[in-house]
């Protein structure tokens, strides 16, 4: 099934706020065979919203809008949809009760402006927003559906999972089954990977499709399949998935779509090991990624952001002679940083980074983008020097992901339960 997304808000058009809802909608509906084939970003303007809906309905049976449902005067989506689909705005007592409940949970008092959220079009079926004050509105006309959702990303994600996705699947039942499998691949550029697996990809039957989804430090390959025989589809997509994993061998970081930091956590648990980080140029980003995964406290003890040479010496016991001889951005320094982190934070393993993220600070010998990464495990201390092109943020992201991947590789070389 195809659907269109309309993100509404002046703030999106001027870059004040980034539209993340479209990606969340696609991510959550794609596993069930729904494809987002059109995304429009429009202003808080009635004519623009109506034109966008007309255009979306030309190519899709389902349209999801996000934004413009607040209680202030600039949020006109509700009134515009009422005009488009007919009916009138009337207070819904159930919506009002829900708004009061949400406001009370936030420790606030209901005011007249927020209470106006209970005014909803009589032409819509209302779905209560259990995490926000803006009700979700489901409109239908000529067999087509428009669902108006709030613009707050957290609310959109929560309500998609708990209410919208199940109802869409039930409303648009299909005889087709949809399955997908993913492979995370390292050590290849996207183009080289495509050349390497060209024969395998060309042999895919018409009901299977391969997508290339590059991410920092790796390429995610996703096999999508659609067929009216679910058992047959599962058997075939599993067989092709195993073929692809065998073909790529050691370059497969993971045979499913998991965040790299989750893969690292799983490896640490599998080996019974603990981890710490010592970060300079990445500024704590690696520890942020690690602690974003539930359960990280079981394997992660902490991080030392040692940005200055003094911090490297005083907190991580990096020798002043090493800094003077090789410089802060060196494989020798990150090895000592990693070993110092293990000692200071009482861990079995450590990741250390030191580099030049830019835009300034580079030299001919060590240009901007130079990053040294140290990995300490019970199997030894290892160091690597990389050059990552791009701006400061891109260097930090690439360095962080590369460091996580290197840690996974070195931990996988160890015997299970080495402690």
From TrEMBL:
Pfam families per UniProt: CinA, MoCF_biosynth
NCBIfam families: cinA_nterm, molyb_syn, PncC_domain
Domain MoaB/Mog residues, every copy: 4-171
Protein name: CinA-like protein
Family: Belongs to the CinA family.
Protein origin, superkingdom: Bacteria
Coiled coil region boundaries: none
Source species of the chain: Heminiphilus faecis
């Amino acid at each position: 099934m195809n659907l269109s997304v309309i993100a509404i808000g002046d703030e999106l058009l001027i870059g004040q706020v980034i539209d993340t809802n479209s990606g969340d909608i696609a991510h959550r509906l794609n596993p069930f065979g729904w494809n987002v084939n059109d995304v429009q970003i429009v202003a808080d303007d009635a004519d623009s919203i109506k034109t966008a809906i007309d255009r979306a309905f030309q190519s899709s049976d389902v349209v999801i809008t996000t934004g413009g449902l607040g209680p202030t005067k600039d949020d006109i989506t509700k009134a515009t949809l009422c005009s488009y689909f007919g009916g009138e705005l009337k207070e819904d007592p159930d919506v009002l009760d829900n708004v009061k409940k949400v406001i009370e949970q936030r420790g606030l008092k209901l005011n007249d402006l927020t209470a106006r959220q209970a005014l909803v079009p009589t032409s819509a079926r209302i779905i209560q927003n259990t995490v926000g004050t803006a009700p979700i509105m489901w409109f239908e006309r000529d067999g087509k559906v428009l669902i108006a959702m709030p613009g707050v990303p957290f609310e959109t994600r929560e309500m998609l999972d708990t209410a919208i996705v199940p109802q869409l699947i039930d409303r648009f039942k299909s005889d087709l089954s949809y399955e997908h499998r993913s492979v995370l691949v390292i050590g290849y550029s996207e183009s080289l990977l495509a050349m390497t697996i060209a024969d395998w990809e060309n042999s895919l039957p018409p009901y299977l499709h391969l997508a290339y989804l590059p991410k920092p430090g790796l390429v995610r390959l996703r096999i999508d399949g659609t067929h009216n025989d679910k058992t047959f589809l599962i058997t075939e997509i599993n067989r092709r998935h195993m073929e692809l994993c065998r073909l790529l061998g050691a370059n497969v970081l993971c045979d499913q779509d998991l965040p790299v930091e989750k893969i690292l956590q799983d490896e640490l648990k599998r080996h019974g090991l603990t981890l710490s980080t010592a970060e300079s140029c990445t500024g704590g980003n690696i520890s942020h990624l690690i602690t974003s995964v539930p359960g990280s406290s079981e394997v992660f003890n902490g991080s030392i952001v040692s940005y200055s040479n003094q911090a490297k010496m005083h907190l991580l016991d990096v020798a002043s002679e090493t800094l003077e001889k090789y410089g802060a951005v060196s494989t020798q320094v990150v090895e000592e940083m990693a070993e110092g982190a293990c000692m200071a934070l009482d861990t079995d393993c450590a990741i250390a980074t030191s580099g030049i993220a830019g835009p300034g600070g580079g030299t001919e010998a060590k240009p901007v983008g130079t990053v040294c990464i140290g990995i300490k495990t019970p199997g030894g201390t290892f160091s690597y020097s990389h050059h990552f092109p791009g701006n400061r943020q891109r260097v930090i992201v690439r360095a962080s992901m590369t460091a996580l991947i290197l840690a996974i590789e070195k931990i996988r070389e160890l015997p299970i339960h080495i402690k």
